[in-house]
Each structure stands twice: as C-alpha cells, then as structure tokens.
Amino acid sequence: MGQIRYASFSERGVRTDNEDYIQIVSNPIDDRHLFVVCDGMSGHDKGEVASQVVGSAICECWEQALSERDVKSVLREAFKQASEALDAKADMLNHVEMGTTMVLAAIIGNELSIAHAGDSRAYFLRPYDGVVYQTKDHLAHSVWGDSIDRSFFSYQREKADVEIQQFELQTGDRIFLCTDGVPTIIVPDIIVRRSMADKSPEDVADIIQFFCEKFSKDNYSGILIYNE
Fold first, then answer.
1. I want to staple 51 with a disulfide (CB 3.0 to 4.6 A). Which of 38, 65, 171, 218 is the partner?
2. CA dihedral over 37, 27, 88, 46, signed as positive or negative
3. Residue 66 maps to which CATH number?
C-alpha cells in the first residue's frame, strides 16, 4: 500500500460565483480516502447549492461507514442519500430545480473506485502505461446540441445513474479529477502529460490552475492524487 498525497484547487474564474464544490475525506491510519468534485449545473438556479449539498452528503455517508469494506455498496447508499438531501434542500427553497454533476475517487487500501455522473472527469494514469481509464462524459446528442443526461437533479432521482469502475491501485499511479472548466481549456493529452510530470502534486496543480486562470471562461476545480 502506497502513501496518498494530493493537491487541489477550486476557483470561480471570470464568473461571478463558483458553482463547483470539492471535498476530501482522508484517513491515512485506516488507509481510506475519498475525493469528491461536483459542478453545479448552469442554466438552472442554485448550482452552488446543489453541488455543495450532493458533495457533502456523499462524504458524510462515507464517514459513517468506516467499518464497511464493500465500496460499491457504500457509494450506492451515499448516492441515494445525496439525492434525498438534494430534494429536501429543494423543498426548503420553494421547490427549485437545481442539479450538479459529480466525479469521485474512493480508495481503500489498494482498491480504487471511480464514480461519475455528467461531464466532470477522472483521469487514472500509470507510469509507462499512460491512461488506464478516463471517464466518458454522460451527454445526449441532438440537433440542438449536447446536454447532460446523468446528474444529481432535484426531483429527478432517475438521472443520478452513477457509473462506477474499480481498479487495483499500484505504486506510482495518479488520478486527476476535474470539473469541465478544465478540459475545455486544456486538451486531455496535455492534462495527462502534466499530471504525470516529475513534480509534486502541488506544483502540477499550480501549473494546471495557471492555464485555467489565464484562459478559462468557467469555474475550474481539480484534485490531483498520487499513490507513492
């Protein structure tokens, strides 16, 4: 089992508000780690509320299941509770329609689980092998353009059809989680190269953040995770 190191950033960029939300729950003693990135959906009200509610609910459920080793069961329960929390919050806000995408990485020992709904992304990278896994955006295509077809959305729990993939984590592996404000500015090949650079996670995160700060027209958030 390796040592987990990480760095993160979350910025509003040129926008008035930051509708992204990130949360990290790291328990090195138990060798359990959870990294969550949510992106409130523009075009709807209260995106910043939706992302915070969903991200926090998932993390709370994870922390309450410290003795459970079946990660898929824990995550599915967390997603159910997140949908319930989102509906409850929408009730308090006069039944507002609000939603968020989500991507996370859950690590217990050498087991890595990556889960996502929407177009927030995960890149799972390995030295000499390159990209082991990259999430595929959940988008519906039409003549009017692309739209997100999986997300956490108030009163539409069927949309929270979260995709979960599991892997064996090896020494040297890296995971980068981000909202769509990052890959719209930095093409995936560059994200991969930067994430595998021989630098600390803090230095690499700073480089990615610099590019986003210079060019992004959206909020941008990311978590870079090293297994050393």
1. 38
2. negative
3. 3.60.40.10
Q: Which two tokens stand for residue 56?
A: 């926090």
Kindly report the CA angle at 41 between 218 and 108, in degrees rounded to 5? 95
List the chain pLDDT tens, one digit each, 228 residues.
579 999 999 999 999 899 999 999 999 989 999 999 999 998 788 999 999 999 999 999 999 998 888 999 999 999 999 999 999 999 999 999 999 999 999 999 999 999 999 999 999 999 989 999 999 999 998 888 789 999 999 999 999 999 999 999 999 999 999 999 999 889 889 999 999 999 999 999 999 999 999 998 999 999 999 999
Total tally of structural domains belonging to the chain = 1
pTM of the model: 0.95
- Give the number of other Cβ atoms within 10 Å of residue 14's Cβ: 11
Residue 128 CB neighbours (<10 A): 6
Angle of helix 47-63 relative to helix 71-92, nearest 10 degrees, comes to 140
Residues of the domain holding 53: 4-227
Could you give the 3-state DSSP secondary structure of residue 205? helix
Phi, psi of 203 (to 5 degrees): -65, -45
